[in-house]
Amino acid sequence: xxxxxxxxxxxxxxxxxxxxxxxxxxxxxxxxxxxxxxxxxxxxxxxxxxxxxxxxxxxxxxxxxxxxxxxxxxxxxxxxxxxxxxxxxxxxxxxxxxxxxxxxxxxxxxxxxxxxxxxxxxxxxxxxxxxxxxxxxxxxxxxxxxxxxxxxxxxxxxxxxxxxxxxxxxxxxxxxxxxxxxxxxxxxxxxxxxxxxxxxxxxxxxxxxxxxxxxxxxxxxxxxxxxxxxxxxxxxxxxxxxxxxxxxxxxxxxxxxxxxxxxxxxxxxxxxxxxxxxxxxxxxxxxxxxxxxxxxxxxxxxxxxxxxxxxxxxxxxxxxxxxxxxxxxxxxxxxxxxxxxxxxxxxxxxxxxxxxxxxxxxxxxxxxxxxxxxxxxxxxxxxxxxxxxxxxxxxxxxxxxxxxxxxxxxxxxxxxxxxxxxxxxx
Amino acid sequence: xxxxxxxxxxxxxxxxxxxxxxxxxxxxxxxxxxxxxxxxxxxxxxxxxxxxxxxxxxxxxxxxxxxxxxxxxxxxxxxxxxxxxxxxxxxxxxxxxxxxxxxxxxxxxxxxxxxxxxxxxxxxxxxxxxxxxxxxxxxxxxxxxxxxxxxxxxxxxxxxxxxxxxxxxxxxxxxxxxxxxxxxxx
Lengths: 426, 186
Description:
The structure holds two protein chains of two kinds. Chain A is mostly helical. Helix content of chain A is 47%, strand content 11%. Chain B is α/β, with parallel strands linked by helices. Chain B has a single domain, classed as Beta Polymerase, domain 2. Chain B has three helices and seven strands. In chain B, the strands form two sheets. In chain B, strands 1-2-5-4-3 form a five-stranded mixed beta sheet, with helices on one face. A two-stranded parallel ribbon of chain B has the order 6-7. In chain B, strand 6 (116-118), helix 3 (127-138) and strand 7 (141-143) form a beta-alpha-beta unit. The longest helix of chain B has 19 residues, at 14-32. The N and C termini of chain B lie far apart (55 Å). Classes of the chains: A mainly alpha, B alpha/beta. Chains A and B meet through strand 3, helix 2, helix 4, strand 6 and strand 7 of A and strand 3 and helix 3 of B.
């Protein structure tokens, strides 16, 4: 930028152009930033893989024109752990622990989706109590996943205290999860045909208390940030990804609903007891960062409603399906009878056989459609264990999403689509 | 095995909901692409959850276009492959969903060891990375793909991990980082 008093002020051209020192052949139809002294200087900027704003190990090489991103190349695979290959070489029971490490912000939802997909292949029906607990797990996971997504997104844009409100509730939720299964992050809670352990006495009541608190916190967070002027300027109209783009790039979940794609598998293809609970599906129209943020806020409210309804309707009962193939023997039987010990040994060493067949089981996880496509040829491990992770498809849309945006908005866009490296790389 | 009748409490009864739409679509495809449809597995008679059609490679594009535009299966849910170890070694597996009715379909394309497939990017831009992943994991090449590089493994990696003959243990160590190819930004 040339200053007003600089030498090349020319009186014969209109004032604004003279002030900017533009050549006479300047094409005014191009949208340019007058303050950008690096205009037309092409710079390659490497963001990641260990940049704090990248939320995990992935990398974005951006080619900048001044401050505007012209093209970007997204790279990932730094946390590739060959989960699909492991799925072909581990038994169905052993694979449960690998599903935690997919979307580690909402490990419970992955457990639930995986257990459901294998049960579907085997034709096992889980008892009612187990289904209600699983639904509560899935919704709890959705709430904490959304809390971390909107919190981190706000941290990246400078609203640090906002994040702590959500994180506090998230820690409380982890305590609830710890009471359920003994672990906080990597839960491995579900088993094929049942659950690792029953929910402790009074767990539903504690969840309801937590829901009540979280409702207040969400209202507070909403008041704190949503109408903040700086937040609106940084998010409204930034990184717009419209409905057409969403369908082209197979977006699902809250990112697609933010652009007006009215699909929620919980409502449209209800599995478990989702057809027996009442909830609304928030849909926005524009598909910018703000919409993705606000759809998540609304979804948290809806999930809290579902949690209350589940907690009200959950009843005492068995948590294991009456199926000899998948039922893990009771410890008392294992330690006291020979048959029980053999059963235990066979279950954990060789696993159970799943009949030949194939099934694709989608589940509305926190980020979108999480699908397990299992081809079984009989035997204790899958022939092909495909994990359709929503982040893989969301991250692919990042390049068209940020073309023509400022480099600072890349951080906003990436935080808003909530790409989780564990799920992306598998 | 009762995958033919999925347990309703665990999972919504797809077959009841979508059987009319499925049979209409399959009927239409069988008349329009009689020579291209090799085999159709139906949930009534086979252990599959949704209709699975084996499609000839050369007509796959037209058939997918027909499915996308005439039948509303415009959402590419998943695009992957599997190593079957038969004479035609690989199956390309395409999952489609109709955003209106939420019905799902599965298409499979048989490919031999060194056969290539034409890219699906003209139909769905999102197929780009899915195809890169299939190339990375199975070594199947896609004609007309603009940027067929490895996506999860290092670009210098040898072998395709999800092939059944790929070893489970072994190391490939790269001591220097591989800088990104500047040609990609042109």
